[in-house]
Specification:
The chain is mainly alpha-helical and about 200 residues long. The protein has two domains: about 25-120, no CATH class; about 150-204, no CATH class. Helix content is about 75%, strand content about 0%. It is built from eleven helices and no strands. It starts with a helix and ends with a helix.
């Protein structure tokens, strides 16, 4: 099995390894339990709140794994109740009369991990939305610039925007062919004039 740190180091260079995906949540949960890693087990409440076939899940586990998952199912149910998350897990617990003795610390460990994971997931979703918004803004900006400026002018302004040094020729060209256009566009009088025209054209 490839070391996780090595995989992350490779992916940071832009090389992504394709691994076969799991067919179901039951398969993922079973695999996590088989790793016998308490740190990985903390992730299980995130999977158990999905649509799970608990009979199928339990039937494929060994005695020790079954005992562990029953404990985590009880913990997960307590978490979902506290967070007001709907799940069919309570029904399965009642139907199978599952009871487990839990320590307060065990519940707290799982609950903290669950909350942190949900926060990180939300932050990741927000990052994606922000990136998409920036991409749309850049596309709109580029379209507007292409209407007003030639590719050569856009290239020079992009260099200035990115704090790249201009050659003497580019600097002269900027003051000769770009600067006056920029000043005109920034004029509040020009902006107000164009706004009136855009509004008035509807009635022309």
């Amino acid at each position: 099995m490839i070391n996780a740190r090595l995989i992350k180091a490779i992916e940071r260079k832009g090389f992504f390894l394709n691994f076969p995906s799991y067919e179901s949540n039951e398969e993922i949960i079973s695999q996590i339990l088989k790793e016998e890693n308490p740190r990985l087990n903390l992730s299980l409440p995130l999977f158990l709140m999905e649509d799970i076939d608990y009979k199928k899940l339990i039937s494929n586990l060994g005695k020790a794994e079954k005992k562990e998952i029953e404990k985590i199912i009880i913990i997960s149910d307590k978490i979902y109740r506290k967070e007001k998350i709907r799940s069919n897990i309570s029904k399965w617990i009642k139907e199978n009369n599952v009871t487990v003795n839990l320590s307060k610390q065990e519940f707290e460990d799982y609950y903290i991990a669950f909350k942190e994971s949900k926060i990180k997931s939300a932050e990741k979703a927000n990052e994606i939305v922000e990136k998409q918004s920036k991409l749309r803004l850049n596309l709109d900006l580029n379209k507007s610039l292409e209407v007003l400026f030639s590719p050569a002018k856009i290239r020079i302004m992009k260099k200035i925007f990115n704090h790249e040094k201009l050659t003497n020729t580019e600097l002269k060209y900027y003051y000769k062919a770009i600067s006056n256009i920029n000043k005109a566009l920034l004029s509040p009088h020009v902006q107000e004039y164009l706004r009136i025209i855009e509004i008035s054209k509807k009635f022309a």
